[in-house]
Amino acid sequence: MKMQAAMQGQELLTDTLREQLAVWKIHDVIVLRRGELLMEWHDSGADRLAAVYSCTKSILSALIGIAIEEKYIGGIEEPISNYFPGLNTDERKSRILIKHLLTMTSGLEWPDFDKPYWKMKRTDDWIVFILSQPMAQDPGEAFAYNSGGSHLLSSILTKATGSSTYAYAEEKLFRPLRFRKPRWNSHDGVYEGGAGLHLTSNDMAKFGQLYLQGGRWEGDQLIPRSWVEVSTSVHHKGLAHYEPPIFGEYGYHWWISLQSQNGVADCCFAKGYGGQYIFIVPSLDLVAAIRKEPEGKSGAIYAKELLYKHIVPFCS
């Protein structure tokens, strides 16, 4: 089976496609089909650790689901004021729930597609900065992409479990999946929730395969199947109409794109700045991890073109 998959991968990776990967500035491609390696390609000749940017959010989502299953966190309806008591002085902020952070609908003012994130990173206390932002809408009303909210989730996870986000991830995901020495940036004792994780492309693909398998890995249920299903289901239209179509609708820190929208196949994906993706296409039993040179938001479309115009047609 593995030899057959490898031979098929060679058919996919034609000279023409190799040239296109260079034009698109793609760095790494891992394709898994039916749990087997179909294609592995690296522009440098070998896999390496690199920033996955906002793909970090999808791994954090998995950790939140695990912590809820283990009763560290009360559930998605739990108010975040349980972890940040000062919010009780603001009636609307006191109504922000865990699910609002997961779906980017906290109502906190966070304009211009995450622009305050960069201001946050220049402050001494990120948590205070995030929570001091005014409310633009009531919680649950509107989608606003907010890496600050993701950082609050990492802080909540740390408070709830009594261990760092990295330590919890190491125990629950990284070690069971045999990740290769992941690195995660932290600030003031909290690992960055919205970005900051560095993984190999093979480990990105493993994480995608874990979700494709309903959270099960080598006989162990690492993530509750119910969490995998609910977190990769649509909870908000998100950025489904963004052009170019590099995003989609939104779940719990996962993006979702339906065949009715993309014209190719239903899929969900973790997405990092500039074209770092973990794609899951359940109908084809397919996972693809793609990394490219980050050249701004719009350049990410080339990673999607690789999936939709080359990988999916080859596997269909």
Automatic annotation (TrEMBL):
SUPFAM superfamilies: beta-lactamase/transpeptidase-like. It holds the Pfam family Beta-lactamase. Keywords: Hydrolase. Residues 29-290 form the Beta-lactamase-related domain. GO terms for molecular function: hydrolase activity. This is Serine hydrolase.
